[in-house]
């Protein structure tokens, strides 16, 4: 496969290491990188000497079989659409796009073209994430009693000083759609979407940004079962994400890269994953690359076989619909229903108004 890398900024580190790791195994040849910045292009060429710098980004798609779209979210619909029109498969960085409406159009464009689409929800590929989904699907936890989702991370103000970061127009929002979306995706992937949500979105005193750096809320799954949500980038010094699900037969506690399954009958605790680095900081060069490796391996294998990747566009769209419902609730101050898969999507917010 000839690979084009679209975007070589902050989000690219893990992807480039994954490509370098898998190049021989999967016969991947990075032939182009789309960036205005020659310094960034040189960093790519240090791993892939044959990569040509091209601009505008669409020019890098010519002759490619696979594109990694690692540009800001506000560009995803157009770039993925351009790739689909050329018959190019895509692995796109999360989120799919700014809003559920644009994300739905992006997914529809690839489906109409018959091209593959995977989304970088790499936490689905970690052993703890797969274990959580299996514990729910197998009935090991029993009927869901309730749970909590906490992403208490830290970002210094310098992180938000980059133009566009934490803005509605470029990123679609703040902590919810940029950082916490990974843990929320694991929850939705395991349980399916909630019936309705309620939330508040605020800016803490420690950050100056346009969108929110803190969200608190509740996901109602029906039958009196709810999962609380607290996510922020204002919790110094930051801790690994934590997801707890309590059921009639046991409790699952996901703490960063590690999952612990506690059976109610007093049996032995089962653990999956490792206690290694959680990758909670902003620098992708410091994040573990093995989950990016697995999500890329899975995507390429699925594209070649004409199958559905682990983090398919259609499944990622469900998560984005929940994200948008939380934003709508925070804006309106009321419960917001979450459309069922296949139903009408949550109405798109006005441009620049995703939270």
Automatic annotation (TrEMBL):
It holds the Pfam family GFO_IDH_MocA_C3. Transmembrane segments: none annotated. Coiled coil: none annotated. SUPFAM superfamilies: Glyceraldehyde-3-phosphate dehydrogenase-like, C-terminal domain (SSF55347), NAD(P)-binding Rossmann-fold domains (SSF51735). Residues 1-119 form the Gfo/Idh/MocA-like oxidoreductase N-terminal domain. It comes from the Bacteria. InterPro entries: Gfo/Idh/MocA-like_OxRdtase_N (IPR000683), Gfo/Idh/MocA_Oxidoreductase (IPR052515), GFO_IDH_MocA-like_dom (IPR055170), NAD(P)-bd_dom_sf (IPR036291). Residues 132-252 form the GFO/IDH/MocA-like oxidoreductase domain. This is Gfo/Idh/MocA family oxidoreductase. It comes from Pseudonocardia tropica. The lineage of its organism: Bacteria, Bacillati, Actinomycetota, Actinomycetes, Pseudonocardiales.
